[in-house]
Fold these 2 entries.
Entry 1:
Amino acid sequence: MHGPVLHPHTELRFINDTIGYGVVATRPIPQGTVTWVRDRFDQSFTAAEVGAMSPPYRAIVDKFSFVDRHGHYVLCWDLARFLNHSCRANCLAAGYDFEVAVRDIAPGEELTDDYGTLNLDVPFHCDCGAPDCRKTIYPDDLLRLGVAWDALLAEPFARLGAVEQPLEALSATTADWPRAKAACAGLEPIASCRDNYRARDARR
Ligand SMILES: C[S@@+](CC[C@H](N)C(=O)[O-])C[C@H]1O[C@@H](n2cnc3c(N)ncnc32)[C@H](O)[C@@H]1O
Ligand SMILES: [Zn+2]
């Protein structure tokens, strides 16, 4: 059971009672592989649309969506909505609408990203268990920690063109992949993850 916009070599598994379900690799996923790309089936809502939703719908958006650089709430239609947060995330986004494996991911290992990159509405309590767990993940973590995440992205981006990219064909709806390739070729700088920041009061 997997969706094509999340890496095909993944499946949904129960992680534990605190975290619930999560996405686990079924085969090795090398550093530099795009693990998730925004695609045309993902739904997006303005802040006003979310504000007008009834509580049960609102709860789904609150739990499963992230906010993009335009301030829109994006609800992934596939297993990507089950990606959990880790303070030692193995998947991160630079300033594009896709995430890459920042290190090699082994079969059986959970794919995780950092909710600090997702423009949270409210602080998030983390139980990831990493030795350097930040405990509370804040809406403006991108501004405070973005420089460190950009540094973590340099090595995987250098490998972007050298590893198999099963999701590339699905990136047709975005200009971000060609931009990223130009960056890998040294034609422009790699866009900073901080480009994805959108303050809460700047959402409509
Ligand atoms: C996008 S969903 C991820 C899928 C979720 N685990 C599930 O089973 O539906 C986000 C929710 O997962 C849980 N979660 C994800 N990462 C977590 C973490 N590091 N610590 C505690 N809870 C986490 C929280 O309940 C959070 O609201
Ligand atoms: Zn943590």
Entry 2:
Amino acid sequence: MPNKRTEISELGEFALIDRLTADFAPSNATTLCGVGDDAAVVDAGGGEALLVATDTMLEGIDFDLTYFPLKHLGYKAVTVGVSDILAMNALPGQIMLSLGVSSKFSVEALEEFYEGVRFACRELGADLAGGDISASVTGFVVGITAVGRAKKESIAYRSGAQQNDLICITGNLGAAYMGLHLLEREKRVLKDVAEPEPQFGGYEYLLEKYLRPCARKDIVESLAEEGIVPTSMIDLSDGLASDLMQICKSSKCGARIYLDRIPIAKQTTALAEEMHTDPVIAALNGGEDYELLFTVPLAMQEKVMRMGGVDVIGHVTAENTGAYLVTPDGSDIRLKAQGFKE
Ligand SMILES: [Mg+2]
């Protein structure tokens, strides 16, 4: 009998990772946390741990070079890598970059990419410490690995959220998603125009959030200043719904978040209205905002509010209650995870 063939789409990204990595229980005592969090945690001795995270960005899947400047792509690659280190409540130290490059790129084009990398590294205090470049026939490929360091007791895993904890969000959500949609719209509209002049008036902020998102090192520093170690944390790369579900799954808890407390920028709402979409959908399912989602005990509310730029959007509930979005009229909408963002 032939072996059963399962399509990747039947599982989706998260179930696929679970299935492929199910038989990889750590065998080294230094592996404090393996697959299943934003970064791996490796015991470094002396009460400290190293954090290691890796990401891949593919042309045509994760970015479109017809409107993505290489300088911004270099910057964003560092953000994507370092954001996973910050999501463990750790600070970045080093990054490694592996590129797949076809002959359509000149040396000068690659220098532009590295200019963005240099800029982000300087902002985030990370050193480019190595990497690799190989030839590619399928477009531009970026592999980024980020390394960080933290005291073991200050690391925030996805698994520590407790019932009644507050669910906190930094910045605002959905802006990157609307930025991407604006770029895609202009690409469609200007496809056959000889000298295209895209119309981005008033929406530059959304483009910036998509093309050149900042990793929230400032938040990890403010948490340290206030003496807060979040009970759980994740960076918002896949969208609020999906990322909150990851916390719920790892922490074995439920959640209630309130629609009218989700921070959405006015440009996000304005463009969503113009494009006849719902800004809440952008915030819930959009992803790529690279903001941080974290939980803290109820007693820390005052400290969290003192940090600035943080909103409390709900609280952690018992596992059997599930994860819900509560609308202003009081109805409950069950949250669903996504993954493999287009
Ligand atoms: Mg992450």
